[in-house]
Design goal:
Layout: E1 11-17, E2 20-26, E3 32-37, H1 48-54, E4 58-63, H2 79-93, E5 98-103, H3 105-116, E6 121-127, E7 132-133, E8 150-151, H4 154-159, H5 165-168, E9 173-174, E10 180-181, H6 186-196, E11 198-199, H7 201-204, E12 211-218, H8 223-232, E13 236-244, H9 247-250, H10 252-263
Parallel strand pairs: 3-4, 3-5, 5-6, 6-12, 12-13
Antiparallel strand pairs: 1-2, 2-4, 7-11, 8-10, 9-10
C-alpha cells in the first residue's frame, strides 16, 4: 500500500493564513488528537498508514507544510514561519493540547513549537530530528536545483529527474492548464533546508513532556548526538529501527508499533 494514495479515510481541508492556503488531512474519529508533521520533499499523506494503525484511539491530523503538497508556496521558510503555521492550524481546529509527531524537518518544527508553546503540547514524537545539524554550512539539497519543476506532460517531467524519477513518480501534480509539476519547488526546499540548519539544543531541552526519539540504524543523527539527546532531556525514550533516515516509510510497521507503544503510556 502506498501511503500517498491510502487517504480515502481522510478528509482534506484547508485554512487561509494571510491569503496563503495551508492544506491538511484529518483522518477523523473521536480519539485524542495527534498532529503529524512530515519532512522535506514529503506531505501529510505520508502518515496515512500510521493513522490507520493508531485509530480509533487517536485522531491523526497531517498538514502539508508550507510549500509542500497541496499547500501554497510561502514567501519564506523561516523557523518562525513554520511554527506560526502549526499554531494557526491548532487554533483553526480548536485543539488546545495535542501530541506532536514529526519526521526530520517536521520533528524539529515539533520540538521547537513545544519549546515556544509548552501549554499546547502534551508529548513529542521525534523521528530523525537532530538537535544540531548543518553547522558546516553544507546543503544536501543542492541536487534539487538541477531538477525541473514543471513540464508540458508527465513523461517529460519524469525524464528530467534522471535517477531520482522513481522517488517522485507517484507524487506529481497536474494543474488546470494541463502541465505537470513537482509537489514542491526545488528552490524553496533548498532555502528551507538552509533555514532549518543550526544549533537547536536549547529548544530540544526546553520542554519536560514525555518524548519518543525514533532513529534509524542508517539515519542522519550521529550516535554521540543521539546519546546526548536522551541524556540531556529527561523523559526521552529512544527507539532504534532498522531503517535509513526515512523511518516512517522505510519501516512502517515497526514505526507504527513504536509510536503506538509510546502513546499507550501517556
Amino acid at each position: 500500500m502506498n501511503d500517498l494514495t491510502a487517504t480515502d479515510t481522510a478528509t482534506r481541508a484547508e485554512l487561509s493564513i494571510e491569503g496563503r492556503r495551508l492544506s491538511y488531512l484529518d483522518f477523523g474519529g473521536a480519539g485524542r488528537p495527534l498532529v503529524a508533521l512530515h519532512g522535506h520533499l514529503s506531505e501529510g499523506a505520508t502518515f496515512a498508514r500510521l493513522a490507520a494503525a493508531l485509530g480509533p484511539e487517536w485522531r491523526l491530523i497531517a498538514p502539508d507544510q508550507r510549500g509542500h503538497g497541496e499547500s501554497d508556496r510561502a514567501a519564506d521558510y523561516s523557523r518562525d514561519g513554520y511554527l506560526a503555521d502549526v499554531l494557526a492550524l491548532l487554533d483553526h481546529l480548536g485543539l488546545d493540547r495535542v501530541v506532536l509527531l514529526g519526521h526530520s524537518l517536521g520533528a524539529i518544527n515539533a520540538y521547537q513549537f513545544a519549546a515556544r508553546h509548552p501549554e499546547r503540547v502534551s508529548a513529542l514524537v521525534n523521528a530523525e530530528g537532530a538537535a544540531s545539524l548543518g553547522l558546516d554550512g553544507s546543503n544536501p539539497f543542492g541536487f534539487l536545483l538541477n531538477l525541473p519543476y514543471r513540464a508540458p506532460d508527465r513523461d517529460a517531467l519524469l525524464a528530467g529527474f534522471g535517477p531520482a524519477a522513481p522517488y517522485f513518480s507517484d507524487r506529481l501534480r497536474q494543474d488546470a492548464d494541463g502541465t505537470w509539476r513537482l509537489p514542491f519547488h526545488p528552490e524553496d526546499m533548498y532555502r528551507s533546508e538552509d533555514r532549518v540548519h543550526g544549533d537547536h539544543w536549547g529548544d530540544w531541552t526546553a520542554t519536560t513532556c514525555p518524548a519518543l526519539l525514533i532513529h534509524g540504524t542508517r539515519g542522519i543523527i550521529p550516535p554521540e548526538q543521539l546519546a546526548a539527546m536522551v541524556e540531556r532531556r529527561p523523559g526521552t525514550v529512544p527507539v532504534e529501527l532498522d531503517a535509513d533516515h526515512l523511518v516512517c516509510t522505510g519501516a512502517p510497521e515497526a514505526f507504527a508499533a513504536a509510536v503506538g507503544a509510546f502513546l499507550a503510556t501517556l
